[in-house]
Design a protein that fits this description.
alpha+beta; seven-stranded mixed beta sheet; six-stranded mixed beta sheet; 28% helix
Length: 280
Amino acid sequence: MMNDRIETFGQSTIQHGKHSDRVYLMKLGQDDLPELLSRLEDLADEKGYSKIFAKVPDDRLDHFCRHGYRPEAQVPRFYGGDRAAHFLGKYLCPKRREEPRPQRVAEVLELARAKEPLPEAPSLTDGYRWRPLDPSDTQAMVAVYRRVFASYPFPIHNPAYLEKTMVENVRYHGIFRDDRLVAIASAELDKSGGNGEMTDFATLPEERGQGLANYLLTRLEEAAAEEGIVTAYTIARAYSFGMNITFAKLGYDFGGTLTRNTQISGDLESMNVWYKPLVS
């Protein structure tokens, strides 16, 4: 399967492809407006995509809203520890705007928000060990990702991609049992912006229920804070009780829901945004 493409327009970063049937403005270059808006529209029209998804700072929100974008989520203190980020959607097909499982989204969110924060930092039970992952681990990482995700918006099934991102701005952590990698998560760091996305959580089915995601998230937060990250956030599957509960129990606040935003394991899914300040 072809993965979505990542390209640049001026100082902006754009991801697009039929995989998630969208254009995603991942990073906005402040000097790229208004020409960038036309580029996003033209790309969506040329490829027949049904959604444009954009992440923009406070001072550009009105500009996008005047061109048909609607706010779906917000993360305070996203840029430089002060300015918020707004997650916007522009729907080019009425069906794409409709949430197919509204009751499930509501149930997941209600249960997650009702959870009390963990009283103490999570720990690993006997038999498990944690460490940061490095290029020598990429084959084992691919094996885990292939079992957990039939498809994914980024090429995490490719060892070369994993190694490339390790060298750049992604920190991967893993948990092992009997020298076998059984759980992974990562933090994608934007050091210039002071924010980090906690993502790519994958635990082998037979190892679930052991609190491994909680432990990995805590370790990733510590590592991100040491590298100067002020705000952590995630974009979690809105239909997943487990991941939303994980973030709620670790002190994350709910920022909003992105409707039918991302293709994971063969289907377009809505995503919940959660965020947490790593420094007071």
